[in-house]
Amino acid sequence: MTRLADLRKNYELAELDEVASENDPLRQFDQWLQQAIASGIPEPNAMTLATVGSDLRPSTRVVLIKGYDARGICWYTNYHSRKGQELAGNPFAALQFHWVELERVVRIEGPVEKISAAESDAYYQSRPLDSRLGAWASPQSEVIGGRMVLAANVAKYAALHLLQPPRPPHWGGYRLQPERWEFWQGRKSRLHDRLRYTLQSNGQWLRERLAP
After folding, report:
1. pLDDT for residue 9
2. Catalytic option among 190, 194, 196, 209
3. What are the residue boundaries of the structural domains of the chain, listed by start?
């Protein structure tokens, strides 16, 4: 059996320095995300979302980024889910992308808000029919008696809405507005590159190098 302590990897694919990096973290993120997509790695759009509940205990789960611009990073989910309830009580979160094959990590922190109903409607209608029905069928994060509950719910809502289910009122998008970004590039001898961008009161970004 392999000992976990013996699992090691050298990181030597690339580097990240202040001269080559973008002054705007959104541009740096766009560059890295597009490179991840172009590289063909599995699910480059997957990101870990961390929230904190009223008990002050953090929880994480993987969601998919569905949009990003100067306003922030977007994803969609059930508002009644655990993450939705935690965001309702504490509207701050952290995101993390880990592109293992590229030896890169991006971390993003900031406040979160629901996106507009119009934006949620537009995205919902762009989804495949089975995904639209799934949003109705799954009482996300609730205990259910078995998978047959989901199958029964799909059949119920398919009969009710046919081919045009409307967006459920409990389902829609969130947007995290970044206040802090960190870009991590693996380097040899564990002397990794870490650049942090912090939003200043004047709207500018302060870029700093962190020790690995």
Report:
1. 80
2. 190
3. 11-127+169-209
For residue 22 the two structure tokens come to 């973008």
Say how far apart CA 66 and CA 2 lie, in whole Å: 38
Contacts 24+ apart (CB under 8 A), 140-149: 140/77, 140/78, 140/80, 140/81, 141/78, 141/80, 141/81, 141/82, 141/85
Measured between alpha carbons, how far is 72 from 115 in angstroms, rounded to an integer? 10
CATH superfamily of 11-127+169-209: Electron Transport, Fmn-binding Protein; Chain A (2.30.110.10)
Contact 59, 50 (CB under 8 A): yes
* AA letter at 108: I
207 tagged catalytic: no
User: Which segments in the chain show pLDDT lower than 70?
Assistant: none
Cα 136 from chain centroid (whole Å): 22
User: What is the Cα–Cα distance from 195 to 193, expressed in whole angstroms?
Assistant: 7
- One-letter amino acid of 39: S
Q: Evaluate if pTM is beyond 0.90.
A: yes
pLDDT given at position 1: 86
Predicted local distance difference test score (pLDDT) of residue 196: 98
pLDDT of residue 142: 93
For the chain, how far is it from start to end, CA to CA, in angstroms? 30
